[in-house]
Amino acid sequence: MKAQDCCVLIPSLSPDERLPQYVEELLKAEYGLILVVDDGSAEKYQPIFDRLAKMNGCHVLHHDVNHGKGQALRTGFEYILNHTKIQGIITADADGQHTVPDTLKLTETLSEKKELILGSRDFSGKNDQIPSKSRWGNRITSCVFRVLYGQWLPDTQTGLRAFGRELIPAMLKVSGDRFEYEMNQLIFCSNQKIPMTAVGIETVYLDDNKSSHFHPVRDSIRIYKLLLGSFLRYSAASIVSFLLDYLILSLLMFWIFKDQPDIMFLGIPFSVKALIAAPIARLFSAPVNFLLNKNFAFQVKESKGAAFRYFILALCSIVITTLLFGWLDHFMNTPFLHILLKVVIDVAMYVINYRIQKAWVFPAEKV
Q1: SS3 of residue 110 by DSSP
Q2: What's the burial of 183, exposed, middle or buried (CB within 10 Å: 0-12/13-18/19+)?
Q3: Tens digits of per-residue pLDDT, 346-366?
Q4: Strand, coil or helix: what is 294?
Q5: Would you place residue 218 in the very low, low, confident or very high pLDDT band (cuts 50, 70, 90)?
Q6: In this predicted structure, what is the pLDDT of residue 129?
Q7: What pLDDT is recorded for position 133?
Q8: Which residues are CB-contacts of 340 (< 8 A; sequence separation ≥ 6)?
Q9: pLDDT category, 226, cuts 50, 70, 90?
Q10: 258 vs 65, 70, 291, CA distance in Å?
Q11: Residue 198, class by beta-carbon neighbours within 10 Å (0-12 exposed, 13-18 middle, 19+ buried)?
């Protein structure tokens, strides 16, 4: 996409001289519009915004009070949608971390396809420009996102992003008023099957990133609350189902079927009491788990066919775990080891089942 068809949207709070310099360079690159959102900066910063407003091709919006980066982005999106015919949106930070060549790189990558393009810094150990706390924080977040949402994003905290006009209505629905908005945007795109493409950009950290308004504790809590939200609820639902499952399993294995002999099938030894008890216990716990996941973990109001899809997944899971449990239980000789073995097997299926349920059984409603 060409620069003249795009807008660079910059949310700003208490900017310094780096913002006017960045805007001047962007204007030289012939962008169709530079849109700056003053997110409630103090009076002493208004001369900077006044200078920006006088630049031909730059428009400034103001919040009377600070609402946060997420709300500043939504304010910009609404203006672009309602007052311009701009086709591409590039969001950038005001603190000098994003260069014009990198902004242009995302612009050139942007097309009319429905996708989110992310300007990704190099967080590998080879890059000594990254502060250690930023390196490890981003790597951990990338790993968690990979496990829970199935895609590796090398830079989950980048503010340099690009997407087409048709995605603006969807981006306006993304929740989060502050820095957590950007993480919620990634989760939203993952849930909606909107492709996300990483484009390598320069790594710029000025004065160890002291100018950033990111609060390490408060904003990290907001981000991880969003990132882990459904997974933590899924975990709570799983614990309830786990307790019911193991209560029934224990009663069946150590009381009702305790004297059942082991058998050989195709030359493989199996514990009969385990083969009987495991599926019966799961038949009782699975409906409870389904209702908890639907209404509490994934909070799905309507999902046609969810019960049938869950039944298929539960059936496959029961077959796999029962056969594995029945085989390995043959080698156990104490009640404690029986239960420990079942825990290990179920935990191994835990994250796999989460991913399948989130993507297939209880998919997010399309917007």
Answers
A1: coil
A2: buried
A3: 877 888 899 899 889 998 877
A4: helix
A5: low
A6: 65
A7: 66
A8: none
A9: confident
A10: 69, 59, 31
A11: middle
Cα 49 from Cα 41, distance rounded (Å): 10
Tally DSSP H helices, then E strands, for the chain.
Answer: 11, 9
Reading the block at residue 289, the tokens are 């788990």
Alpha-carbon distances of 188 from 89, 146, 173, 223, 229, rounded to whole Å: 18, 14, 9, 13, 13
Output b/e per residue, 122-138; b: 16+ Cβ within 10 A: bbeeeeeebeeebbebb
β-bridge partners, 11: 37
Structure tokens at 36: 């700056």
Write out pLDDT tens, residues 250-280. 899 888 888 787 787 777 778 888 889 989 9
The neighbouring-strand residues paired with 58 are 34
Residue 65 token pair = 């009070």
Residue among 297, 314, 282 nearest 362 (CA): 297
Token pair in block for residue 286 = 């699975």
- Say whether pLDDT at 197 is over 70: yes
Domains of the chain in start order, with CATH, are: 3-214 (3.90.550.10), 228-361 (no CATH)
Q: How far apart are CA 90 and CA 76, in angstroms?
A: 11
Q: Identify the residue whose tokens are 């788990």.
A: 289
Copy the structure tokens of residue 244: 């019911």
State the pLDDT at residue 207: 53
H-state helical runs in the chain: 18-28, 46-54, 69-83, 100-109, 132-149, 168-173, 180-191, 218-251, 272-292, 306-329, 335-356
Give me the pLDDT at residue 211, please: 47
The pTM of this model reads: 0.76
Task: Tell me the β-bridge partners of 163.
Answer: 89
Tokens, residue 305: 């066919």
